[in-house]
Amino acid sequence: MLIINGLVKKYKDFTLNCSMNVERGRITGLIGENGAGKSTTFKSVLGLISCDGGDITLFRKKPEQLKKEEREKIGVVLGDAGFSGYLKVKDVVSVLAAMYPKFDRAAFMKLCMQLNIPQDKYIKEFSTGMKAKLKVIAALTHKAEFLLMDEPTAGLDVMARESILDLLREYVEEDEGRGILISSHISTDLEGLCDDIYMIHKGNIILHEDTDVLLNEYGLIKADKEHFDKMDKDYILSVREENYGYACLTSQRKFYMENYPDIIVEKGSIDEVITMMIGGVRQ
């Protein structure tokens, strides 16, 4: 559905160098700290900024080659874009109906009621969370095949975030021809949502893995210097020196549990994987 191959975008003090794929029927996550390159990647996919190298294909075409009817198949949430503050919900309905022939007004209004979006207020009077929910609703209700969502849960409380994540799961389950690329700095959101996750750091993809593999096969080893020196390092991805010795990230947790019963091997969370890949010394 989306193929990014060797994308390069250079700024004065930052260079993006990114390759990634999003397949139909899957939700792919892009995670990284602020400034890592997530938004630059998304804007490149949409053709909002020019690139210095590499190739992007969406629906088997370059972004600039997409026809109007193909662009209508894309649902977008960008953190720095939204509706005019001088519109009300009824005005947003008119805008979306004019832009998208497949816009579903009934579904839009249903979701607005479900997510407590006020009908009689101007958007400028909305809270940050209300504005975020409205952008997601708009992206979901014109039958897009591909959703590109940059931090769609930013500004939402825990319950509201879970409601949005449920909607995204249902959206892909309804039609296996759909796909989603979503970014977030809240790793727990992506743990329960995404089929696979890319980690980006300083403009570079440093890890790509299926989410189930990350959660079930990756692990955090804690070993003193003596055990660390004797340990097989073939399956170690990153090492960080600690007061007790060394913390090591592995993609083969069971191997170390079975072969080194005297060391501590914990099941790693995505947060711990990120911390080790960014803060440790990669092997």
Fraction of helical residues: 25-40%
Radius of gyration: 21 Å
How many strands? 14
In percent, how much strand structure appears in the residues?
Answer: 25-35%
Q: Low-confidence segments, ≥5 residues, pLDDT <50?
A: none
Helix tally equals 11
* Order of SSEs: EEEHEHEHHHEHEHEEHEHEEHEHE
Class of secondary structure makeup: alpha/beta
Major sheet: order of its strands?
Answer: 5-6-7-3-8-9
Mean pLDDT: 90
Shape category: elongated
Profile the largest sheet.
Answer: 6 strands, mixed
- Give the CA-CA distance, first to last residue: 32 Å
Short description:
By secondary structure, the protein is an alpha/beta fold. The chain has helices at 38-45, 68-71, 89-99, 105-114, 128-140, 158-174, 187-191, 211-217, 225-230, 253-259, 270-279, and strands at 2-10, 15-22, 27-31, 53-58, 74-77, 146-150, 179-184, 196-201, 204-210, 219-223, 236-241, 246-250, 264-267, 281-282.
Descriptive tags:
single chain; 283 residues; alpha/beta; six-stranded mixed β-sheet; five-stranded antiparallel β-sheet; 14 strands
Would you kindly provide a written description of the structure presented here, covering whatever features stand out?
- It is a single chain.
- The mean pLDDT is 90.
- This protein has 283 residues and is of the alpha/beta class.
- The protein is built from eleven helices and 14 strands.
- Helix 5 (128-140) runs parallel beside helix 6.
- The strands form three sheets. A six-stranded mixed beta sheet has the order 5-6-7-3-8-9, with helices on both faces.
